[in-house]
Structures are given as C-alpha cells and as structure tokens.
Amino acid sequence: MLTRGIRLVHRWLGLLLALPLLVQGLSGAVLTLEPVWPEFHDALTTTGPVSANAVLTAASTAAPPGMRAARYRPGAEGSAATIVFSPTDNPRGPALVQRFDPVTALPLGAAAPVSGVMNWIKRLHQNMLLPQLGGRQLWGWVGVGLLLLTVLGIPLWWPRPGQWAAAITVPRKARGVRLYRALHGATGAWLMVMLLATSITGIAQGFPQTLRQVLGLPSSRPPQPARPIDGVRPLPDLDSALALARQAMPGLDVRLVFLPAGAEPVRLVMAPPGQDGATAARSVTVDGAGTRLLSVQGTPPANEAALRWMHDLHEGTGLGPVWRGLVALTGAALPVFGITGLMLWLLKRRNRRRIAAARAQAEA
User: Fold this and answer.
1) From CA 187, how far away is CA 331, in angstroms rounded?
2) How far apart, in Å, do the first and last CA atoms of the chain sit?
3) pLDDT level of residue 89 (50, 70, 90 thresholds)
4) What DSSP letter does each residue of 255-303 carry, written as one string?
5) Which distant-in-sequence residues (6+ apart) come within 8 Å of 302 by Cβ?
6) How far apart are CA 148 and CA 14, in angstroms?
7) Which structural domain, as residue segments, surrounds residue 57?
8) What letter would DSSP give residue 99?
9) Domains: count for the chain
10) Residue 90 lies in a domain
C-alpha cells in the first residue's frame, strides 16, 4: 500500500513538472557548457602593456547619456577589455556593454545592450523571465519537486537481489512499456547522486536570501551607491588599484573590477589563473585614489565557503571538466525522465483500455 502511494505521488508530480524540468535542464546544460565554447576575440591594433586608466577614461567619454561605467573586466591575452555601463540612478537597471582595445583604448564597436540568445537563456534559467513575479523562487520550488522525485524514485527503482545488472541497463530488444521503464530507471540510477546534488543546490539558488539567513550571512542585496557630489564623479586611479591588488594577492589574476559611483572604494575580484568558480575568488578593496589598500578577503569563512560551493556545484564551475560535463549531462537528461514518464503513463492507459475492451467483448 505504501509503495502504491509513493508510485502515485512520483507519477503525478513527475507529470506536473515534466515541462518545467525540461526547460530548466536544457537551459542549464547550455549555460554550463557556454564558458568553454571557443571565443572569437576582436583583432587588437597593437601589443604592449595594458592601461586600465586609458580604457576607463575612454569609456567614461563614450558613456551613453544617463549611464556610468560600473564594471571593468580586463581582457585575456589577445582579447579586448570590457566595460559594463549601468544607469546612474538604478544600478540594477538595463545594462550596456562595450569592448575596448586594452592598449589604444579605442572602442571596438558601440555600446550594446546585454542581450542576445545566451542572455535570454540565462534569464530563463534564473528567474523564468519573471524577475518581478518571483520567478527565481518558482524555480526553487521546482528544485524541491526534483528532490522529491529523486528521493521517491529510489525505493521504486531499488532492485531485488540478483537483479542489479538489469536495473542499470536497457535491454537491446526492449520495446514499449518495458523500454521506457528501463530507460527511466537506468538513467535515474546512473545519475542519482548528480540529481540529488543538482536539486539541493538548485533549491539553494532559488532561495538565496533564505540560505544566507540559515548560514548566518548578511543579505546580498547591495546598498544604494553614493551620489557624486555636485554631479562630479572623479575617475578612480584604476592602474594603481590594480597594482595594489596584485601586490596584496600575488599570483592571482584580476577577474572583475566594480567601479564606484561616488566615494565608494574600488572592489576587485581575483582568482588563480584559469579558475572560474566562486570558491576560488578573493576580494580586495582599494580607495578610489589607488593609494590605500582597505581590505583583503583571503580564504572565506566556513559559512561563506559553503554558499560558494553551492554555487559552483550547481553551475559546474571551478571543479574541473569532469564535474562540468556531469552537470551538463544531468541537465540534458532531465527531459528523458519527463518523456519516458509521460510515455509510460500513456502506454499504460492505452493498455488498460484495451484490456477493458477485450473483457467487455468477451462478456458480451
């Protein structure tokens, strides 16, 4: 009786979440693999030392009306530096991005909206394209559903003694209900650990503020930036800030620089060369004049490290190509559960109707 109840909950919850999990799985697989796709960099006009101040000055001159340079990303070797502009009165408003030659400081094209197919997929995966309607939290509840499906599926799949090989394989000659049941069970068996990891970390991504409270961390919502005095905002000495940060964190590369709107310090995110995960990131703050090192965040405390691990585990970053591949494979496999589960339900309904019709005909 208990098994029947578990089967019913698993079946109807799976049918309800089949489409959301398909969308979440495929979009997640694309986003996981996107950072390792080949990049085509702009051809630079010259070679030599990078002048971040020159890039920032050129970006401030080229800033669209009502926008300010908010983030600076140094270009990798042979590629352009990037400036992200945000509205001066709304740091979370629509952003523009522009690329610059890191030596001549010449713009490589005009500032363009941060949009495109990949940005649309990212927003779909993060908040269902409904940022103002709790889309992130809705995905969090889908993660809860995936966790329940995985946990409930384990006892339904668990094989009897001597049948373990059959439980993790798909017979070559299987057809119909047998094929879909074997594919459903074998896929779940091979990806069981990844499904648990993906669902748990997905819940964490869906309810970030709740998780921060549980871990004893302050809210991640940034404070409103200070207003420039009399409308004048002196540019920070970015070259000096970069030099101080590299001196404080030798051997680390600057990954991203958050530029101040007023009197705030410059914040630099650094990481070991080639590492893209949040777990490896370190933070340095420098005053706008580039003369004083204000803070250095080395190894984060345990609660902050746990939050970063959740991020990296879910996105497949910073943990090597094998984990990234497994995360992408798990996302791509989520539609398999929805399709095979739906086909099992439809085929069983069809078979029951055929049996009922045959019985009715035999009794007639």
Assistant:
1) 12
2) 34
3) confident
4) EEEEPPSSSPPEEEEEE-TT--SSTT-EEEEE-TTS--EEEEE-SPPHH
5) none
6) 10
7) 43-107
8) E
9) 2
10) yes
Backbone angles phi, psi at 71, to 5 degrees: -140, 145
Domain-embedded: residue 247: no
Closest to 289 in 3D by CA, of 266, 268, 270, 258: 266
One domain, residues 180 and 60:
no
Instruction: Read off the pTM.
Output: 0.85
In a domain, 197, yes or no: yes
Query: 208 and 332: one domain?
Result: yes
**DSSP codes of every residue in 188-234:** HHHTHHHHHHHHHHHHHHHSHHHHHHHTT----PPPPPPPPGGG--P
pLDDT at 360 over 60: yes
**Cα–Cα distance measured from residue 144 to residue 206, given in angstroms and rounded to the nearest whole number:** 10
Give the length of the chain.
Answer: 364
C-alpha to C-alpha distance for 259 and 246, rounded to whole angstroms: 17
Per-chain mean pLDDT for the chain:
87
Crossing angle for the helix pair 320-363 and 2-33, nearest 10 degrees? 140
- Measured in whole angstroms, how far is the alpha carbon of residue 54 from the centre of its chain? 32
